[in-house]
Design goal:
145 residues, single chain, Recoverin, domain 1
Length: 145
Amino acid sequence: MKSCVALLCLVGFACALDKSIVSGILKDIEKIGAECVKETSASEDDIAQLNAKKVPTTHEGKCMMFCYAKHFEMMNDDGSLSDAILKKWDVIKGNDEDVYNKLVQVHNTCHSKTSLKADPCDTATDLAVCSLEESSKLGLMEQFA
């Protein structure tokens, strides 16, 4: 599984980064994706939606977003938002500080805009949608033309 709506901005701007960083990100996405399919019981249709870069419509598909968000430390197990991923992005800062600064801006904006829902899968999906919108505004999605 090479793409996930929640991580599109990461993969999108990763094209400007060192190939070893991009390769590591894609390997993580694929490995975590396989784990998340088992955890959420997402269907092939759910996975097809994600791979088509579409917002999931089923609960299982939305829970894939939550699973990814937990694994990438954007959200905590209890469904609250987390800043832990910022430390992991230091490798990006060392490679492309402009991309890093834009990523932090997206993170901060979406954390302030995303309200916690009763279902953390819905929160994760809202966070992903915000990340896509904010990444696009900052030109981080242009590689997906």
